[in-house]
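writing this on my phone so excuse typos. first protein, seq and then structure
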Amino acid sequence: MPRKKIVFIIVEGPSDDEALGVILNRLYNKNAVHLEIVHGDITSERSVTPKNIAAKIGNLVRGYAAANHYKAVDFQEVIHLIDMDGAYISEDFVTEDAEMEKPFYTTEEIWTARPKHLIERNRRKSENVNRICFINRVWNSLPYSAYYMSVNLDHVLYNKPNSTDEEKETNAYLFAKKYKENLADFLRFISDSDFSVCLDYRQSWEYIQEGRHSLERHTNLGICFKEMKG
């Protein structure tokens, strides 16, 4: 019996894994799924630039492979889930509020105690995401594709963009419980909801870069499952 290929999926935090891990494992049941939790956002790291982001992503896969005695041929593809964080909005939609301990997102603006810092983060993140849109291969020519969850995964899955850590955990558990035995319902939810952007892959990325779309509730993840949905 042939060895299962690994679908390497990059997510930002543990609650992302809890919400989607079981569901993705069942959707890709002909392959082995590994969710790589990076505990942060690769696209907004200060050390990451459009010139090195492909290598940064590839190194994640290569590191996992080396630690588990895999080779590039053992991988099917690399899937990257990215929070948009309002990265493409105009600076005019970043509002200073000294009482905000961390950025607070609405569908029209971001409130933050450090507007200059956030504007710089958005510039850096948008430049890196612009590069990601054109990457289709990473380490040793592994197929790569990126999908956005804006403003973040909690926004898309639960419509709660400013969730606390406790709320993230609770909502992730309930989401996984609801859909792990109902994959068809999950595919309809992610592909056919009013927030689903299931255009051509490149067009879907052009869409999220327009106006305030990166603050609004949108995802193109449904494109990833197009063949499964039929």
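second protein below, same order as before
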Amino acid sequence: MRTLLNIIWFIFAGFWLFVSYLLAGVVACLLIITIPAGVASFRIAGYVAFPFGRRVVEKPGSGVGSALMNVVWFIVAGLWLAIGHVITAAALAVTIIGIPMAWANIKLIPITCFPFGKMVIHEGDYALHV
């Protein structure tokens, strides 16, 4: 089921969101101070392309540095990418099949806005991180 959902997701939303995260990563890497934000954007791009079967959890040991980078990230790219998720969710929610995809899009907004201090794991690995 996850494979089917990931294929449908990639066709209708994932590809364009993936490209937008890559673009945000390139823009963030242009400035020295925002290179960690660019790296985070590239990391999230893989998750956004195929989100089903994976989960976002808190990264142990993240602290003030992660909080500061989250503020920088939100200003540089997080807000704009979150708006992209809302627009994509609205477009997907028009059809019955698109409603679960729209909900998945909305669930991606927290990691879009604040990616530092979080990590993406596979569903089977969740018990190891709890």
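Helices lie at 2-29, 35-49, 64-92, 98-107, 109-113, 126-129. thats all i got for now
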